[in-house]
Amino acid sequence: AMRINQDTVLRGKKVTLVPYTAAHVPRYHEWMQSEELQRLTASEPLSLEQEHEMQRSWQDDADKCTFIVLDSERWPGEAEENSMVGDVNLFLTNVEDPTVGEIEIMIAEPSCRGRGFGKEATLLMMAYGVRKLGITKFEAKIGQENEASISMFKKLHFKEVAVNSVFQEVTLRLDVNDQERWWLLKQTNHVEEKSYAELKQPAGVLDT
């Protein structure tokens, strides 16, 4: 099951990825009230209770790997809820081919967009998918109007393979051959993998 990452922290220069827990839901719920984010992520607004149910189901879902993206400058140090900038997901939905992962990135905090957070979070998730989940092909489905996201994925070597005019979305794809794998691991060789339980010490422990 996808509990594989429940104690995993991936710490990069700009962002740190942590597992999506119940503590993150209120902030996440707040973000998803934004009409712009609903449009960009093609999602319906949920009640807080529904959002909590969703978080629980995702945590137990064998086909999803989800991390919350935190600002590395702020966490650890500040509360996680105050350090949250977005989320990144990997869906293993291709029953015929378990080496395909569909990747999704959302930088929800407007002040954190255009600063390379999304790019690093995506690279961290891709390297994790390659190393830990055996992914060799990535797909990203992005709304046609979301030019910033499309351009970011193209910089990460994804190629446009399909356009769905009904859903107005573009599908991009990356096959991870040896050369791409080497490039990806080189881009992420600064990343530290840590235990979430150890980093998440109660605040009092840090003060002594």
From TrEMBL:
Q: Top enzyme class of this protein?
A: transferase
Q: Which UniProt keywords apply?
A: Acyltransferase, Transferase
Catalytic activity of the protein: N-terminal L-methionyl-[tubulin] + acetyl-CoA = N-terminal N(alpha)-acetyl-L-methionyl-[tubulin] + CoA + H(+)
Query: Could you tell me which residue ranges the N-acetyltransferase domain spans?
Result: 35-177
The record, for PROSITE patterns, names: GNAT
UniProt EC number: 2.3.1.308
Give one Pfam family.
Answer: Acetyltransf_3
- InterPro entries, per database record: Acyl_CoA_acyltransferase, GNAT_dom, NAT9-like
* Stretch forming the signal peptide: none
Query: From the UniProt record, which GO molecular function terms apply?
Result: tubulin N-terminal-methionine acetyltransferase activity
State its role.
Answer: N-acetyltransferase that mediates the acetylation of the N-terminal residues of alpha- and beta-tubulin.
Sequence similarity: Belongs to the acetyltransferase family. GNAT subfamily.
Full protein name: Alpha/beta-tubulin-N-acetyltransferase 9
- Organism of origin is Donacobius atricapilla
Q: Which gene encodes it?
A: Nat9
